[in-house]
Each structure stands twice: as C-alpha cells, then as structure tokens.
C-alpha cells in the first residue's frame, strides 16, 4: 500500500486544520493508521492512531482534547482533525500504516509511511 498525506498549511494559533491520509488500496481496511510528526532537529514522535480491528483511538497527551483521528474505510482514507493549534504543533506530519497489527506509539512498529505534510502554526 502507498500512503499520501495532505492538508497541511500555515495557520494562526487557535486555528484548525484537517489532515488526510489516502491509501492506494483496500489493505487500508485491515491496517492500523497512525499519525506522527517531526520538527526540525527532532525525532519522529507519535501523535495519534486508530487501531485495527476494533477502531480504538490513542493520542499523545499533548494533543488530547484538541486532535481527533478518524477513518473512512469506504474511501480508504484516514483523517486528523486538529483544533486549537499551538506553535509547538509546528512539524512535518506523517501518516503510517501497520497491516494486521494493533497500533503502537513506536515508529519502528509501523510498516508503511507516506510523505509528510507540513503544518506551521504562527503565534
């Protein structure tokens, strides 16, 4: 499967963005989907995930209550709704897939990665 992330951009603090992660085929339906982010000079860090098979969602503490991950299996697409954005949310955001596996917060456990989409939040 190939993943394509989109929806990034420049937004003021307090604003919102909706990221999308489109998969190339229906293996999406049997995959956990995760979002990670990487700031300049930083490691790639977990943001949120929606797990196969039960749809359990998990979030990093820094985004709980502000970000929501969802998936649309009919469209082979996952979404990350980001509200009340803060300057510290600025990063390159990546989506990832792990087929037949439950989601984890460890980047090394994810098999497939899309290209990132840049999110920049101005103060």
Plain-language structure description:
The protein has strands at 3-6, 9-12, 17-23, 31-38, 45-50, 57-59, 67-72, 77-82, 91-99, 112-113, 117-122. The chain contains no helices and eleven strands. With 123 residues, the chain is mainly β. 0% of the residues lie in helices and 50% in strands. The N and C termini lie far apart (37 Å). The mean pLDDT is 96.
Topology:
Layout lengths: L2 E4 L2 E4 L4 E7 L7 E8 L6 E6 L6 E3 L7 E6 L4 E6 L8 E9 L12 E2 L3 E6 L1
Parallel strand pairs: 2-11
Antiparallel strand pairs: 1-3, 3-8, 4-5, 4-9, 5-6, 7-8, 9-10, 9-11
- Could you give a short account of the major beta sheet? 7 strands, mixed
Helical region count?
A: 0
Large-scale geometry: globular
Distance between the termini: 37 Å
Mean pLDDT: 96
- Radius of gyration using CA atoms only: 13 Å
The helical percent reads under 10%
Task: Give me a quick take on this structure.
With 123 residues, the chain is an all-beta fold.
Structural key phrases:
mainly beta, 123 residues, four-stranded antiparallel β-sheet
